[in-house]
Write a structure and sequence with these properties.
By secondary structure, the chain is mainly alpha-helical. The protein has a domain at about 190-300: Serine Threonine Protein Phosphatase 5, Tetratricopeptide repeat. About 60% of the residues lie in helices and about 0% in strands. It has helices at about 5-15, 75-85, 90-100, 105-115, 125-140, 150-165, 175-190, 195-200, 215-225, 230-240, 250-260, 270-280, 285-300. Helix 11 packs antiparallel against helix 12. The longest helix is centred in the last third of the chain and has 19 residues, at about 285-300. It is elongated and about 70 Å long.
């Protein structure tokens, strides 16, 4: 969340209440329990070149081979990424695909996102699904503190979305139960805030027979405290209205204020939800929300 936005919101609340705004803060992430780390795939030595038995009279520089494979799969991933940035798409894809075949987590994640978004390649949800699946199958048990943990967690979230909606004209049909499993694992083992948000939303869904507002509030709260703006907005609206939980209007307005300041421009539903709650709140509720904001900032400074 942008600090300047939060300070501005405190200023607006304070202006309405005749109070003074507080200062800025830094975000933090809640650590989770660690597991035994799984080592990354090992390096492979590059093949040598036989230049013959004759001894030259003087040292002659040898030109590098134009199509030589990088020394390790991770080197291939790095050189492939650089090639993509420089517009050498075919070369970059070849290198990254080689790295992915050798099990480099970042390469599997990058290809999955490229095919999911249609970035430098034709959009293909089924290929994206395959790369994300391979990543979760080979690294799903890696320690939450490992370098690749963020990639793996996001891959579980992406799979959850595909299972939730299904992939047209493919064997992947909509399966809310499987989607919940993907979200739950990433939310609990990797403590991923996006997974926690999506899991909370599933517990609010009336169509799947598992609606549980208290469970929803639990997971949304975990994500909200990590700065996930969508979770902050949904939790704030729940608390402000008393939707399945005890109504706490001031606390709800506090979360909605944070969500508004951290939302991306396309997420207009967040700013609309905030504006509606602010308009309905009493002066006392606004004053208490202001106090919550000050406490939040103090906690981030300490």
């Amino acid at each position: 969340m942008r600090t300047s936005n939060v300070v501005m919101s405190i200023g607006l609340l304070g202006l309405a209440l005749g109070l003074s705004p507080a200062a800025s803060f830094d975000g933090t992430r809640t650590p989770e329990s660690a597991a035994v780390a799984v080592p990354l795939p090992g390096a492979h030595a590059a093949p040598g070149t036989d230049i013959g038995r004759a001894t030259p009279l003087a040292a002659v520089p040898v030109a590098p081979l134009g199509n030589a494979r990088p020394a390790t799969p991770f080197d291939a991933y790095r050189s492939g990424s650089q090639a993509l940035r420089q517009g050498r798409t075919t070369e970059g894809l070849n290198e990254i695909e080689y790295a992915a075949e050798q099990g480099v987590p970042a390469a599997l994640w990058k290809l999955g996102r490229m095919y999911a978004d249609g970035d430098e390649v034709e959009k293909n949800a089924l290929r994206a699904f395959d790369y994300f699946s391979r990543l979760t199958k080979t690294h799903g048990d890696d320690a939450p503190t490992s370098p690749q943990a963020a990639f793996v967690a996001k891959a579980f979230v992406a799979l959850g979305q595909y299972y939730l909606e299904g992939i047209p004209n493919s064997p992947i049909s909509a399966d809310p139960v499987r989607a919940r499993e993907m979200y739950w694992y990433a939310a609990s083992y990797f403590a991923d805030p996006d997974a926690q948000y999506h899991l909370g939303r599933l517990y609010l869904d009336r169509s799947n027979g598992t609606r549980d507002p208290r469970q929803a509030a639990k997971w949304l709260g975990l994500a909200a405290r990590k700065g996930q703006a969508q979770a902050q907005a949904v939790l704030g609206a729940m608390l402000f209205r008393g939707d399945g939980v005890t109504r706490q209007a001031a606390l709800g307005l506090f979360w909605l204020t944070l969500a508004k300041d951290g939302a991306e421009p396309p997420e207009t539903w967040i700013s609309e939800s905030y504006a509606s709650a602010f308009g309905q709140a009493t002066d006392d509720e606004r004053a208490m929300a202001y106090n919550y904001l000050e406490g939040w900032l103090r906690g981030r400074r300490e």
